[in-house]
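Look over this record as teaching material.
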Amino acid sequence: MLPVAAPLVDTTVENGALIVVERSHLGATWIRPHDFRHPLRDASLTDLPPGALSLVLHAGEGIVFTNRTIHGSPANRSTVDRHALGCVLVPRDASLVHLVEHPVRGVEIWAFSDDDMLTFHPGRFPPSARLVETVDPSERPTALPR
């Protein structure tokens, strides 16, 4: 998966420019970098870890990166909204899945349809989303849905 982000306004540290941690994808697990085993999971977006870059971009400029790259945006502390375009590029035959960590049960793998993704809000899954399997985070899943 390749996320694409393009601000529609100039970004600054004050309005919450996107932060990426260079080379963080190299140590990522299959769960993706924000899983509970990654050492930067709880890293601050104000006290940046080594390798972190705040991407000050002009309106219309953009970035494409692997979904395994640790990234995030701090709060917009300016008085002006920070609008941006974002999308994720995936192979045509790839399944849309969403991973949810549960400290006791493990990692749930949920299958989503294209329409599900349009209505998805964290914590409120679309009615048609389905649980595929729950796995131990140290193991890869048996097979992701098609």
In short: The longest strand covers residues 96-102.
